[in-house]
Sequence to fold (289 residues):
Amino acid sequence: MGMPSENAPMEYPDCILCGSSEKKLLFSKFSDKRESFTLVKCRNCGLQFISPRPAEEGMKARYQSTYFTERTDRGYNNYFSDATMKEITRVLELNLRDLMFFEFEHSLPHPRRYLDIGCAAGYSVLFMHQRGWDAYGIDVAADCIRFGKTNLGLNLIEGDFLAAEFPEPFHCITLWATIEHLHRPDLFLRKIHRDLHPGGMLFLSTCRAGGFMYLHGKNWRYYNFPEHLYFFSYRQLKRLLCKTGFIIQSHSFYGSGTGRPGTPLRAIFDRAAKTLHLGDMMIVAAKKS
Fold:
């Protein structure tokens, strides 16, 4: 209990947004393994991130089977259940509608190529495949990839997107609740830009630093250390997307994390979060410029 294992390689990253090495310590918090991690804030641009953090290789083991089958603040009760798949698909369809994806889809010729990065078991890949897309997914979680390939018959790849080569560009790439897990979101976005067709679209979701986050402080539901490495405000995410060659086409905020799921209190706060643009989740559609 206490600090991460002395044998685990640790990194002290500079800010990926502005390059500054000047950080302000915000607070420390325990992981589910009772390791203490520290949240810092860039003194120049305000981006929040974990530092020090486990090196990338040391993080992969955290995304194996128990992360997806044992309910914690960081994982899922049972990611492979039909109920979870239905709920993820429901939220996916709502997000795509809010981002005017279906209008974009209608404008495309066939065949349409799609890639989901951080696809887990591939529920988004399945959704797009059923809509007639040539759909693929990639993730480092071996158990999820195995499940998606074996049980759902999907085209999934176990591996690192930064090292992957694809024979043809994609019309659409997604990062659903993934960018906050990445050690180098900037490098991912640059490669996504290269792997998209001219005029191709990136759709992403991530937790949002702002709005209802301030009500919960250190206990905010998305301060999951160290799986969540970055916490972007909308302006910071927009700056990073512009820096890597994207132009935001649409965005939306939703979710409050207040009250238990399924209760009237949660419904009231979630409705207020979306109406007043205070949600602690954000979704963004960005076009390759």
